[in-house]
Amino acid sequence: MNKGFFGHPAGLSTLFFTEMWERFSYYGMRAILILFMTASLAEKGLGIDPQSAGAIYGLYTAGVYLLTLPGGWLADNILGQRKAIWYGGILIMIGHLILAIPGSPGIFVLGLVFVASGTGLLKPNISTVVGDLYPEGGARRDQGFSIFYMGINLGSFFGQIFVPFLAAYNWHWGFGAAAIGMFFGLLQFRLTQGSLNDLGLKPKLKEEVEEGVAVGKVNGVLAGALGLALVGFLAVLQWMGTIDVTTATGIAQAVGVIIVVITLFYFLYIMVAGGLNPDEKKKVLVIFFLFVGAALFWSGFEQAGSSLNLFARDFTNRMVGSWEVPAGMLQSANALVIILFAPIVGWIWVKLAARNLNPNTPIKFGIGIILMGLGFVVMYFAAQIAATGTKVGMGWLWFTYFLHSIGELTLSPVGLSATTKLSPKRYVGQMMGIWFVGASLGNLIAGLFAGGVNTENASQMPALFLSVVTFSLISGTLFIIFNPILKKWMGNVK
Ligand code: GLN
Q1: What residues have CB less than 8 Å from 257, skipping those under 6 apart?
Q2: DSSP H/E element including 267
Q3: Per-residue DSSP letters for 2-50?
Q4: Superfamily in which the 7-275 domain is placed by CATH
Q5: 3-state secondary structure of 316
Q6: How many beta carbons lie within 10 A of that of residue 169, not counting itself?
């Protein structure tokens, strides 16, 4: 019998620390990514203009989440989860190592392609194995995921502290630290994976064939489309490192449109040809709205790495005594708030549930999106001060991150769990994929926003942030208004 982990299976510890180090590298690198791209050649950056850098940032982060679809498929059908995690981690480490070597923008983009492909392999599959630790599902599985989410944010927090700290001396030390972090993750996984027994060794498809059940199989057409999308994405990203930078925005926008069209087509296909009964159809329609809500939420939230990161660098007074806090470090507030407040928010839901007052999923989505919008109200005022030429205090961004993080806690875990519960059993894998496509789209839009934050058009920033406020307050309110209808469609799912 293996020793447990906070009263949970010992395997959770292996997955917790692997994901912690992976997120250390992912978020650490992300915290310096746009800063490195937009830093001038004299500052040893790539000297790319903010708009194109934002487009590349958006495509990269969108790619990370989009590649979770083929990543999940590969593991389910061919590799098995364990190999997918292992090889994914290796690709991620190689990617960061490439970034750690000073080189041309083309080489730099190659590094991004490696990290995105590796994350696509690792990220969805490590979560799947967490789920597999609890075949009985239920509250213990939810608890397991909450502990796992702590690992994510611990890694994220330390990554966003250490990587920007080192990058302030030399960008490539920062990227190198991300590579070392992933190396620790791999080492740890290798040494302790015995605790997982035989979980994730065989591809799920094989297990299902043996057991005679089929859950979340992706059909051939979808797999083909994904493969094509993957190749296209890699080619475009690679190409963008070499092309005239002004075309980059157009490409990112086009990719956004393609993602939207494919997703709409997918939902239409499932509704018409998915063999759903009327009850399942209504639930899938709710998943569609949750997808829209998630995309909206992440499009504001994920600006932490793009526009808000640039705002931290160019418009925020970061002096503490005689030390200037590196701009990328400010976004670590998100992970810290999650670590501190996740138990409190969880406790509030439990208390409310005891009185039968726990809000429904659509209401929580509405609240999450509104909180995201309120964060941008703070930025609207901060940008007005910044537009006058005065740098603002760090408290503005911290307050925004605080509101965004409470929003994340209200929306993200709830959305993930509601998606699994609303999905017809046979489509659950694909619907989880759709959830990540929402994140992908949000990241893309967040990248496109970054172009608006630069010292040359500071006077337009308040209007830019206000547009996010208007959009999110309206859509968040719509979720709350339409809650009764969505609730009816959700049937027995809360
Ligand atoms: N911060 C979380 C993670 O990295 C959620 C990200 C997301 O779903 N967009 O896992």
Answers
A1: none
A2: helix 247-273
A3: ---BTTB-THHHHHHHHHHHHHHHHHHHHHHHHHHHHS-TTTTS----H
A4: MFS general substrate transporter like domains (1.20.1250.20)
A5: strand
A6: 10
Mutation choice for ligand 1 from 25, 152, 332, 334, CB with most ligand atoms inside 8 A:
152
Q: Is the dihedral of CA 216, 219, 221, 227 positive or negative?
A: positive
CATH T-level assignment (fold) for domain 279-494: Growth Hormone; Chain: A; (1.20.1250)
Give the ligand 1 atom nearest the CA of 412: 8
Both tokens assigned to 128: 């799947």
Per residue in 27-66, pLDDT (tens digit) is: 999 999 999 999 999 999 998 889 889 999 999 999 999 8
Q: If DSSP states are collapsed to H, E and C, what string results for 155-200?
A: HHHHHHHHHHHHHCCCHHHHHHHHHHHHHHHHHHHHHHHHHHCCCC
Residue extent(s) of CATH 1.20.1250.20 domains in the chain? 7-275, 279-494
The answer to whether 341 touches 406, Cβ cutoff 8 Å, is yes
Q: Is the per-residue pLDDT at 215 higher than 50?
A: no
In angstroms, the CA 183 to CA 84 distance is 16
Pocket of ligand 1 (CB under 6 A): 23, 152, 298, 412, 439
Buried b (16+ CB within 10 A) or exposed e, 89-117: bbbbbbbbbbbbeeeebeebbbbbbbbbb
Q: Does position 113 have pLDDT exceeding 50, yes or no?
A: yes
As a whole number, the mean pLDDT across the chain is 90
When mean pLDDT is compared across 76-85, 166-175, 311-320, 386-395, the lowest value belongs to 76-85
Going by alpha carbons, the residue nearest to atom 9 of ligand 1 is 439
Q: Are strands 323-324 and 319-320 parallel, antiparallel or unpaired?
A: antiparallel
